[in-house]
Design a protein that fits this description.
The protein has 689 residues and is of the alpha/beta class. It has 23 helices and 20 strands. The protein binds adenosine-5'-diphosphate.
């Protein structure tokens, strides 16, 4: 066997290079076999075991049937296969040893057993050795590959199991109800949140649709959702109502997605319970509506109070102003002046409270009209000149020439801020001076606008450093004794701060106790184009020619207005209700109607609407509202009713003059809105603190 399989292979191998050189033929390389032999079966088995242990196992065995005492060939083969089932075996036998049937009976029909009959044919032996060792190699390789595959499959299976487990955990732990259903809406899979949300066990849910479970009221709702899903491929955050067996009707947000699983479409749904959130939103909404109603009631109350207080106040201030010009003993005059000053103080407090409440509810709106800052500053200083003189204080004004002659903005509010600061400066200064100065601020302003800076310096009592912050807060006074000593509500500066902030500016104070204070504010104002003309004042002679119809139901106010008009040289007719206004306007010629807004029967707005619908001869007359509330809304309503302008009560002589000058005969009846606003903003607020 050894001779046949190895033969002269070694010598042949040495000659191969020479053969290649001489004949140029590529030699066929023969497989080299390693061959061991054993004399009998037991020895063969132990050699096989050893080879396996060394990791170098035998590929095949030629086993003679007849062997020295011990196992015969058939027995040996059976033992060898127990150790190495893939060992390729050739059983060498003479016909007389065992019949083929006997061998088969003992060893079965394995595919790794061949019979070699004696005497051997050398080629057959060599071929068997080649073929069987090759077969052994191939089967080893394929079984190694199979093992690899098995390993990969089990590894992948483990990964899939882990992924499946993770998905399950997420699916079940989700606080959002998740369901998978077929295209008819029947549930195939649901998570725990879904069971909890509907209070129904999974077994009852699976196989049924939401209508069958009573979650949706009817199949129309389900059809509607299916239709939307078919059209858009998804449904997003749809609010739906569903029923829970114990807690009743609940609200949820539903998301639907069409997904493909195993090549067929399915519906994936997510449902989030928003019942509590919804309830909270409803409660908030109710609270908000309530708060809005309360705020509305508050501002209506304020408007009413304002009206109720301003009407008699109009009488007090108006009559005391007129009385002051009559001849009377000095002590009577000083009493009259006290009455007037008290009335004006009350009017100022009323203005502050109203302004503050308007600012608080964001209802205060600023006007934009051309004005002269220099005139406004002079007005402010003139207003307090007398008071300053009474206290022997010097009151100076200096205006930088760089400020444009005309600006656009809310002159009324700028005057209000200025008046507040000058009034405080006089109030808190016992000796020395008050200086008002204005110029352009260093910080810039948007294109076409400028930033103006105004300062009010006094040599008064000053403010301690730790109180500086407090004075710009609502009702903030340096100490409680301030209001007792000097009066005031503590609202003036907070109103100033809010007003300058609305004008894109700011207000600040520098002060040292005993040395005095400097209040400085800045604001952004527009620079009007050449076409935005300022109204030119009319001459008194023009006013003197005016015939005015006054509609006012309050007898004291009738007297005040009549006397004021007389003072301006106008002639006036008085009526006390809307019907009489309409009759008078048609019966006689007037240059203007001063119309109280609140009158019994037909009120001022209704009367104005009716005048505007008369024939052109009568309907074009200017109408000026006399209003005690003067809120932006009320003014808007007056304009909407066809009125041209408004005057707020208590009526100031100067404001009345300006309105008459504007709407006087030289202007005619057709004033533009811009002119109207210009006049409105030039009316000074009542300041007398
Ligand atoms: P009030 O109506 O009380 O004057 P303000 O808001 O105008 O309300 O002022 C708040 C407080 O700031 C005043 O009460 C006073 O204590 C202080 N204050 C304001 N201006 C001056 C000033 N020029 N000098 C000293 N203290 C001032």
């Amino acid at each position: 066997m050894r001779k046949v399989l190895i033969g002269d292979n070694a010598e042949q191998a040495d000659l191969e290079p020479d053969e290649e050189l001489l004949f140029g033929a590529t030699p066929v390389r023969a497989t080299r076999f390693e061959i061991d032999s054993a004399y009998q079966g037991q020895e063969g088995l132990s050699m096989l075991e050893e080879s396996i242990a060394e990791g170098h196992p035998y590929a095949m065995a030629f086993v003679d049937v007849r062997m020295p005492p011990g196992w015969d060939g058939v027995e040996t083969i059976a033992r060898l296969w127990q150790v190495a089932p893939d060992l390729q075996v050739v059983i060498c036998t003479a016909y007389s040893d065992y019949s083929w049937t006997d061998i088969q009976r003992h060893l079965g029909h394995p595919d790794n057993l061949l019979i070699l009959k004696k005497p051997f044919d050398n080629i057959e032996v060599t071929q068997l050795a080649y073929a069987l060792t090759q077969k052994w190699h191939l089967s080893r390789q394929s079984s190694a590959r199979m093992e690899d595959l098995d390993r990969m499959v089990s590894c992948r299976t483990r990964e899939l199991q882990r992924a499946e487990e993770a998905f399950r955990v997420v699916f079940e732990a989700s606080p959002i109800a998740i369901t998978l259903s077929d295209m008819e809406g029947r549930y195939l899979e649901v998570n725990r949140a879904c069971e909890d949300m509907f209070g129904v066990a999974k077994e009852r849910i699976v196989g049924t649709d939401p209508v069958g479970l009573g979650w949706l009221e009817n199949s129309e709702e389900l059809n509607e959702l299916s239709k939307r899903l078919a059209s858009f491929g998804c449904v997003d955050a749809q609010e739906i109502a569903y029923t829970h067996p114990t807690s009743g009707r609940r609200t949820g947000l539903l998301w639907l997605r069409e997904v493909t699983i195993h090549h067929s479409p399915h519906i994936l749904s997510f449902l989030l319970d928003i019942t509590d959130r919804k309830q909270m939103e409803d409660e908030l909404q109710r609270a908000r509506t309530g708060a809005e109603a309360a705020a509305k009631a508050k501002s209506e109350f304020l408007a009413n109070m304002s009206h109720e207080i301003r009407t008699p106040l109009n009488g007090v201030i108006g009559l005391s102003t007129l009385l002051d010009e009559e001849n009377m003993p000095d002590d009577n005059r000083s009493m009259v002046r006290l009455i007037r000053a008290s009335g004006e103080t009350l009017a100022k407090i009323l203005d502050d409270v109203l302004d503050f409440s308007k600012i608080e509810c964001g209802k205060l709106e600023l006007e934009q009209a051309p004005f002269s800052l220099r005139e406004s500053l002079e007005w402010g200083v003139d207003l307090f000149r007398m008071k300053a003189t009474e206290k022997h204080l010097e009151l100076r004004l200096s205006v930088d020439s760089g400020i444009p002659a005309r600006l656009t903005g809310d002159a009324t509010r700028i005057r209000q801020i200025l008046a507040n600061l000058i009034s405080n400066a006089i109030k808190f200064t016992e000796e020395g001076s008050i200086e008002v100065n204005a110029g352009l601020a260093r910080e810039g302003a948007p294109d076409g606008k400028c930033r103006v800076r105004v300062g009010v310096r006094d040599t008064g009592i000053g403010i301690p450093p730790d109180k500086l912050d407090r004075i710009f807060q609502s009702f903030g006074q340096v100490d409680a004794s301030t209001s007792r000593r000097f009066g005031g509500t503590g609202l003036g500066l907070v109103i100033c701060r809010r007003l300058v902030e609305m004008m894109d500016g700011s207000i600040a104070v520098e002060s040292r106790p005993g040395d005095g204070s400097v209040f400085e504010f800045d604001f952004v104002a527009g620079i009007p184009s050449a076409t935005e003309a300022m109204p030119a004042p009319a001459h008194d002679s023009e006013l003197a020619r005016m015939r005015i119809l006054v509609a006012e139901d309050n007898p004291v106010n009738q007297i005040v207005i009549e006397r004021m008009l007389q003072r301006l040289g106008c002639s006036a007719d008085l009526v006390s209700n809307g019907i009489d206004v309409l009759r008078q306007v048609q019966a006689s010629h007037y240059d203007l109607v001063l119309m109280d807004v609140q009158m019994p029967g037909i009120d001022g707005q209704e009367a104005s609407r009716r005048i505007r619908s008369l024939s052109p001869v009568h309907s074009r007359i200017p109408i000026v509202a006399l209003t005690a509330s003067a809120t932006v809304e009320d003014r808007g309503a007056c304009v909407a009713a066809g009125m041209n302008d408004y005057l707020s009560k208590p009526l100031a002589l100067d404001a009345l003059r300006k309105v008459l000058e504007h709407w006087g005969p030289s202007r005619g009846a057709a004033g533009t809105d811009r002119e109207r606003l210009a006049v409105a903003s030039s009316s000074p607020p009542m300041i007398a603190d």
